[in-house]
Write a structure and sequence with these properties.
476 residues; alpha+beta; Elongation Factor Tu (Ef-tu), domain 3; OB fold (Dihydrolipoamide Acetyltransferase, E2P); Helix Hairpins; six-stranded antiparallel β-barrel; four-stranded antiparallel beta sheet; 21 strands
């Protein structure tokens, strides 16, 4: 009995609220009628409308990430020194090997001159050592071809021949003395001459061997001179490199993103001369949930959009898939590359990307002219028309198909949306829609969880809900 009394009290109260609201609306209508009578009827904003359509689209995974340079290098100086030239500025494009900065090179030039002089002296010493043994520049050494050795060898050969001749004469005289054809003194003289020639041949042999040893020793001097020349040349190369190290060049072609040095500044080996980045192509690092990892494939197409170019889609492809899953985020790191021939994309840009997978699904599409995007917040919205009023809906955008764009969330199929005067519309504004009518039975989703209504005034909805709660509460 008490519950029924409570229900009656609630219903009477809510009925009073509804009547009060109706009376207020009636008074407002009267005021509007009086205004219209004085100024004429208010004109509604005419808007063109279209109905959301469904199309078959490729299956995809939508993720976000940031663009990175293909190559990025903080160029450091190969030597410490004072900066004398900085011919490039931030933002400039440089070719591989182009000058980035120059250091003072006076000391390096003087050391190079001293090294070159030492090299010339060492080379002269080598030529002198080679001339001593008759060795031509770059020729192969043979001790038997040394002039002194050749002369000693000729003397030795002559002495050997003389000794042989004298020995033959002595033997002949020994034979003749037996027959009495020569005297003993003549035979002794021939023997003495043979012994003398033999001793002279031995002496010539010793001189020949000494000449050979001397030639070999002189060649060792050539070897030492060659070593000295090699050392001098190495010192010259080091000095020349010190000069070259004062010239800092670009290691690859790209753009200068920063140049923190200035003329007159002293830089150490750890200093940064400039930051050089290669932006053609660009990399896009994406983190994909592990549930989608089995569907990822190399060379899969990737579509990306950035806040700086609303409505434009950039195309790339997957170039690498990390074989491991991050244990903290449960994601897989995927790298995609974009040609970026027009240099529209910049390293560090935030991107929303879609990795196309095998298979297809149904998606909701609207004309791109019906979407209003705020670049500052990277958010998009549409105005759908219900009951003669424009209502705003925040949407998430997907793939672009010509003049149509996919709507991932925010509206459902058969929604009727405005395609013009988007900047002039606001939520709840009465409009004169020109286009397809709303679908029958379509309901407007009220904010803050109030449910869905069609043509019923809001106060009646509240009354209906209060009645339901009272009945359910009484039943309980």
């Amino acid at each position: 009995m008490a519950s029924r009394t409570t229900l009656q009290t609630v219903l009477v109260s809510l009925a009073g609220i509804a009547l009060f609201a109706a009376a207020g609306c009636s008074n407002a209508s009267k005021n509007i009628s009086l205004t219209e009578a004085a100024t004429g009827p208010a004109k509604l904003l005419k808007v063109a409308t279209v109905r959301a359509v469904t199309r078959q689209v490729s299956s995809s995974v939508q993720v976000t990430g940031s663009f990175l340079a293909e190559e990025s290098s903080d160029v450091a100086p190969p030597a410490a020194g004072r900066v004398t030239e900085t011919p490039v500025d931030a933002g400039a494009f440089v070719k591989e090997g182009q000058l980035l900065a120059k250091l003072e090179d006076r000391d390096a030039q003087l050391r190079l001159q001293a090294a070159e002089a030492s090299e010339q002296q060492a080379e002269a010493s080598l030529r002198q050592a080679e001339s001593r043994i008759g060795l031509a520049q770059g020729g192969k050494f043979d001790a038997n071809n040394v002039p002194e050795v050749l002369s000693a060898k000729a003397s030795y050969d002559s002495a050997v021949a003389e000794a042989k001749m004298s020995e033959a004469d002595a033997q002949r005289y020994d034979s003749l003395i037996k027959t009495g054809d020569v005297s003993q003194s003549a035979s002794d003289k021939a023997r003495t001459q043979a012994d003398t020639a033999k001793q002279q041949a031995n002496s010539a042999r010793q001189m020949f061997e000494a000449a050979l040893n001397s030639a070999r020793q002189n060649f060792q001097g050539v070897i030492n001179a060659q070593a000295s020349l090699g050392y001098a040349r190495a010192q010259t190369a080091i000095a020349r490199k010190a000069v070259e190290d004062t010239i800092i060049k670009a290691p690859f072609a790209g753009y200068i993103s920063s140049r923190p040095i200035a003329v007159g500044q002293y830089v150490a080996l750890t200093a940064k001369i400039a930051t050089l980045v290669r932006v053609t192509p660009l990399k896009l690092d994406l983190q994909v949930q592990e549930s989608n990892a089995p569907q990822l494939k190399l060379a899969a197409d990737v579509e990306a959009s950035v806040p700086g170019y609303p409505g434009r889609t950039f195309h790339g492809s997957v170039t690498s898939i990390n074989p491991t899953v991050d244990s903290n985020s449960r994601t897989v790191l995927v790298e995609a590359k974009f040609a970026n021939q027009d240099l529209a994309l910049k390293p560090g840009m935030f991107a929303t990307a879609r990795i196309l997978l095998n298979g297809s699904s149904m998606g909701i599409f609207l004309p791109r002219s019906s979407v209003l995007t705020d670049p500052s917040t990277n958010s998009s919205q549409v105005f759908f028309v219900r009951d003669g009023k424009a209502r705003v809906a925040v949407v998430q955008l997907g793939a672009v198909d010509g003049d149509m764009i996919q709507i991932l969330s925010g509206i459902s199929e058969n929604f009727v949306v405005a395609t013009n005067h988007l900047q002039d519309l606001f939520d709840g504004e009465p409009v004169d829609a020109e286009g397809p009518p709303p679908a029958a039975g379509a309901a407007i989703r009220l904010p803050y969880g109030r449910g869905s209504v069609t043509d019923a005034p809001y106060a009646v909805v509240l009354l209906s809900r209060a009645r339901e709660q009272a009945v359910f509460g009484a039943g309980a």
